[in-house]
Amino acid sequence: MLSFANSLSFRLLLLTVFFVMVAEILIYTPSIARYRLSYLQEKLAEGHLAALSVKAAPDGMITEMLTRQLLDHVDAYSVVANDESNFMPMLRRPEVPEVDIAVDLREVGVVELILNAFSTLAETGDRVIRLHGQSPRDPEIFVTMIIDEAPMRMEMLDFSWRILTLSVVISLFTAALVFLSLRWMMVLPMQRITTSMIAFRQRPEDPTSDLPTTARRDEIGIAIRELAGMKQGVRRALRQKTRLATLGMAVNKINHDLRNMLATATLVSDRFAESSDPFVRKAVPPFLRTIDRAVKLCSDTLNFTQESVPLMTERVTLKVLLDGILPELRTALDEEELIIEIDDVPDCTLTIDQDQIYRIFANLASNAARAGATLLRIGFEQDSGSLTIRFQDNGPGISPPIREKLFLPFQLSGHSGGSGLGLAIARDIALAHGGALFLERTGDAGSIFHLELPCPETERIRTRSHAA
C-alpha cells in the first residue's frame, strides 16, 4: 500500500505550498521597500509640521520645553525645513549623535529602495539616519531630519510578521483548494488507473479489473480509453498465444507420427510411379507435391511454435554466403520463370547461420516468383555496423489488405497450399541474428524488402587486412 508521504497527493500539496510561498516572497519584496519609503515620507511630513509650529510662534522663538516636546512627537534629534525664499527655524536637541548613514529621497531607484529595505532588516545595531527630501505636504519645502533607525526597523519587522502570517494562511488555504481539486480531477482517477493496471498484471484474463467507460475528453479520459483498448488487445494476444502454445504442444506430439505416415505415403507413391498404367503415373507427381507441402507445413508450424529460432552461427564473408545460397536457390526455382541478378558484393564478414539465412532468401524469392515477378535484383548497402540486403522484384506489388498482415502468422498465404508462416519465420530469423526484415515499399512497379544484418566495422577492417 502506498504511503501518503510517497503519494502524488502529498507531493502536490508540498509543491502548491512552496509555489504560493515563492509568490508571496515576490510580492513581499517590493511591499517591504514601499513600506520603508512610506515610513520615511511620513517622517518628513511630521518634521514639516513641527517646523511650521515653530514658524507660527511669535518672532519664531519657542521654549526649550516646547522644542523637546515637538522633537519627541516626531521622534527626531533635529528638524530643518526650508525652501529658496523662506527659512523656517531649526528644531534641535542639545546633544545630537553622530550620523551613521544619509538617506536622500529625492534621487532613489526601485532597486536601491529594495536593497536599503533589506539592509535595514538585517541591521542589528541602532544606526542614526540623516534623512533629506521633499515634504509630502508641500513639494517646494525640503526637510532634513536626524532620526534613529531602530523604530523604523521594528515597524518593518512587525509588518513582515503580518505578511508572513497572511502568506501562510493564504498558502495553506490555496494549497487545500488546489489539493482537493487536483485529487478529485487527477489523483483519484490516476489511482484507479494504477489499481486497474496492477490487477490486470496479476490476472490479465479477469475483466473485473476494467474501469467503467468515461465521457471525459481530457488526458485522463484518453488514458482510460486507451488502457481499455490495450487490455482488449493484450487479452486477444494472450488467447492467440495460448492457442499457439496448445498447437505447438500438439504438433510436437504428432509431428513424429505424421512424418512416418508421410514417409510411408512417399514409398507407396514411388511404387505407383513404376506402374504401367499411364493414369497412375500421371497422378503420382501431384501426389508427391502434396506430400511435400504437408511435410513443409508440419515443419514450419513446428519451427514457429518454438520460443526462439535455433542458430548455429559461423563467421563467413558475404561472397561465400552468396556463393552457397544462389546456386541452390536457382535450382529450387528451376520451374519458376524468375531471373536473379546480383549487384556488386561488398567486402563484409557476417556471423550468421547460413541455413537460416538461406530460408529468408528462398522465401522472398519464391514469394516474388509466385506473385508473377520475372526479375529479382539483390543489392547491398553498407552502413556503420550493419549490412542491408535489398530484394527488389518487378512483380505487381502487394495489395493494402495483405500488406497490413504481411508478417502475421497464420493470417494469409501468398499462394495455394502455403502455411502463412513464411514471412513470419523469416522475420524471426532476422531478429534472432540481431537484424530486421521489413517491407520498404510496394506498388505497380514491384516490391522492395530490406534485410538488415549486423556487420561490425572491426570485422570489415579485419577482412580487408587479411585480403591484403
Question: How would you describe what is shown here?
Answer:
With 468 residues, this protein is α+β, with helices and mostly antiparallel strands. The protein folds into three domains: 171 residues, no CATH class; 86 residues; 154 residues, Heat Shock Protein 90. Helix content is 57%, strand content 16%. The strands form three sheets. Strands 2-1-5-4-3 form a five-stranded mixed beta sheet. The radius of gyration is 47 Å and the shape is rod-shaped.
Q: Helices and strands: which structural class?
A: alpha+beta
Low-pLDDT regions? 458-468
Average pLDDT, rounded to a whole number, is 80
- Terminal Cα span: 67 Å
Strand portion: 15-25%
Approximate shape? rod-shaped
Spatial strand sequence of the major β-sheet: 2-1-5-4-3
The total of beta strands comes to 12
Count of individual helical segments? 11
> From the alpha-carbon coordinates, what is the Rg to the nearest angstrom?
47 Å
Q: How can the largest sheet be summarized?
A: 5 strands, mixed
* N to C succession of SSEs: HHEEEHEEHHHEHEEHEEHHEEH
Quick recap of the structure?
The protein is α+β, with helices and mostly antiparallel strands.
Could you outline the blueprint of secondary structure elements for this entry?
Layout: H1 8-56, H2 64-74, E1 78-82, E2 91-92, E3 101-104, H3 110-122, E4 128-135, E5 138-148, H4 150-202, H5 219-273, H6 278-304, E6 314-317, H7 318-332, E7 339-342, E8 349-352, H8 354-371, E9 375-383, E10 386-393, H9 400-404, H10 422-432, E11 436-443, E12 446-454, H11 457-467
Helix pairs in contact: 1-2, 1-3, 1-4, 4-5, 5-6, 7-8, 8-10
